[in-house]
Amino acid sequence: MEKKRVRKATKHRLFILIPVTVVVIVYFIASFSYYTYKIYSLKSEKRELTEKLEKMKDEEDNLQTDIEKFKNPDYLARYARENYHYSKEGELVIQTKKKEEAEISKEKEEKTTSSAIFIFCVMALFLIATYLLVHKTKKR
What we know:
Number of strands: 0
Mean pLDDT: 85
Helix content: over 70%
Radius of gyration: 37 Å
Strand content: under 5%
Structural class: mainly alpha
């Protein structure tokens, strides 16, 4: 078989052309990846902002309803008595815990309890491991 000789000029062109081609391809892949990520992040931001807008519209509707209700003096008086403990003459105000406060205190108790159980378990495992290591070294 005959071996073909590659001319020096062809080698030189390939030596320049291949790295340039690789750089261009890497640039296009990087650009494509960057813009794909950018589009994805903008779509997720749009979705979040749309949800936030819907919540704000609902809140606006609720506030408009409250404004209409507060125009009624009977409703306003009842609201003030319920939420701000105002009273008519001769009425006594008895304060009770609100449901939210009770739920918050219950959650704190649960967190404290679970934290205490976790710490107890970790300490028990540490003591058992220490005992086993000491016992194992004494046998030797």
